[in-house]
Amino acid sequence: DVKVTQSSRYLVKRTGEKVFLECVQDMDHENMFWYRQDPGLGLRLIYFSYDVKMKEKGDIPEGYSVSREKKERFSLILESASTNQTSMYLCASRSPGVPNQPQHFGDGTRLSIL
Amino acid sequence: AQTVTQSQPEMSVQEAETVTLSCTYDTSENNYYLFWYKQPPSRQMILVIRQEAYKQQNATENRFSVNFQKAAKSFSLKISDSQLGDTAMYFCAFMRPRYSGGGADGLTFGKGTHLIIQP
What we know:
The complex is a heterodimer of chains A (114) and B (119). With 114 residues, chain A is mostly beta strands. Helices cover 0% and strands 53% of the residues of chain A. Chain B is an all-beta fold and 119 residues long. Chain B has strands at residues 3-5, 10-14, 19-21, 24-26, 33-39, 46-52, 60-61, 64-69, 74-79, 88-95, 108-109, 113-118.
């Protein structure tokens, strides 16, 4: 089974801090994704990466950046955390080899910015 | 850009009943993929079922089946013989293949339907 691991289940940070959310997958997937989930809004795509050192903006990239130095790891960075970034963050990975392959998700990080 | 609409924020049915969750989407693409994901209170997103737009036959997975109407851009999920463990948030999602190699943009999700199965 695919395993996508997010480093923290819960995280509390202060406004203005630089925050790192880490995601690791163990299936050698080329594609990785970061979403945020808010009640009543569903999941929205922040950034994604097709392969190592590649990244593309999703629907809501403002205030975020990402890093993909190794294939298995995809980091989401909040450069200067703000209270409106309090949310659930979900990481996913996918193999592009077969077009209908689904994304596999981690358990999520619930981030609170105080 | 694609949009996905789930018009039922919450539904509640009795155990063993059949329930249908609705999903409509808007796209100009001809080739795409549709998914239903389930998110129980444990927060793990679990794939329920998938459908390729080029396939006319509706996908089925045990008690779960879809009614895919491409012309109407509708993709509803039917759960038969519902069980207590089916209680969860259900998300409909759209994926457009980015290129022939299979790489893709991220998923576009609906806002979700909270399904409650009553004992």
